[in-house]
Specification:
alpha+beta, Dna Topoisomerase Vi A Subunit, Chain: A, domain 2, 11 helices, five-stranded antiparallel sheet, 318 residues
Length: 318
């Protein structure tokens, strides 16, 4: 069996993310690590996680092809005898941390935004539906818990939003962290699931998948007749994660700048579920929308929620 000698560095706190050589953003770049020495191959070899706004990805094979004097390309691979690698089980977070986050909503910026948009009753339903929590990591921060189909807590993504606009706070740095990191779980075996995956106990509803947790929550308010899941990012729509949707009816709703990548994903997923992709944003988006990375939540929020509820079900995006 062939094993990659060089792999992307596993996330283990901010120190494992670096300055991107292309867009110059801090803490966005992941090195390729030599698994024999645990050292970075080169400071230019890696991937920027700003896939839409940067997209830099310089792979080891490209490095060796452009720098033949460094090492022979064949040594990129380490050939070993066939082995059966033990299947690592995911780690989980104790429910007491989830329970502790279910308060302080008056200091939760995202919940403040939802309340202003939908009112207290609908916001309360969304909090309960998705198990949205509050974090003290940053004043006003939100925890989006990843709860699997067994009700286990895989992790929680901590994010900070502007309470007025509902947009993520990206300055002076991108405010994203993780509960397993905050809890100093150094040997934590992270295996992410869809945000909202625990809602799959309803086996009748069609499933809508978006990129961000915020978009899943907002789409769920506008279209509660669907189960809305979030992949967590453009690249996190993986076959492994998709297995939980086997046999289900699934519609993908990528952000405008992610349409092509998710469209290409369809061939990988057809044998798992009855999956299609919604093209509405591609037709509705203006040049500015493409520049700003319009997503489904951005589009839906252009409509007054009370008016929208009175429209025929599915009249705008089906």
């Amino acid at each position: 069996m062939n094993h990659h000698r060089y792999t992307l560095q596993k996330y283990n706190g901010p120190a494992t993310r670096h300055r991107c050589p292309a867009c110059k953003e801090n803490k966005t770049f992941t090195y390729y690590i030599d698994t024999e020495t645990n050292d970075p191959l080169h400071s230019s070899v890696g991937r920027c996680n700003r896939e839409v706004k940067c997209g830099y990805h310089f792979k080891p094979r490209d490095f060796f092809l452009t720098n033949p004097q460094v090492k022979d390309y064949a040594s990129l691979w380490q050939i070993t005898k066939p082995v059966v690698a033990p299947l690592k089980q995911p780690s989980f977070i104790d429910k007491m941390h989830f329970d502790a986050s279910m308060k302080g909503y008056q200091h939760n910026n995202f919940i403040t935004f939802l309340t202003r948009t939908f009112g207290k009753e609908i916001t309360g339903e969304l909090i309960f539906r998705y198990g949205i929590g509050t974090s003290s990591h940053w004043p006003g921060a939100t925890v989006f818990w990843q709860i699997d189909t067994c009700g286990k807590l895989r992790t929680g993504k901590i994010m900070l939003y502007n309470p007025e606009t509902g947009k993520r706070v990206r300055q002076p740095f991108n405010h994203i962290s993780w509960m397993h990191t905050r809890l100093n779980k150094h040997d934590f075996e992270l295996k992410q699931c869809f945000f909202g995956e625990h809602l799959l106990c309803d086996t009748q509803k069609t499933i809508g998948i978006v990129e961000s947790e915020k978009t899943a929550v907002i789409a769920s308010a506008y279209y509660p007749h669907r189960i809305w899941l979030a992949s967590g990012s453009l690249s996190n729509l993986t076959r492994q994660k998709f297995e939980v949707l086997r046999g289900r009816n699934v519609v993908l709703y990528p952000d405008v700048n992610g349409f092509i990548k998710w469209y290409d994903k369809l061939n990988e997923l057809y044998d798992i579920a009855n999956v299609s992709i919604n093209e509405m944003l591609e037709y509705k988006a203006s040049d500015d929308d493409f520049k700003n990375g319009l997503d489904l939540a951005d589009y839906l929020l252009r409509f007054d929620y009370q008016w929208f509820k009175k429209r025929a079900e599915g009249s705008l995006i089906y």
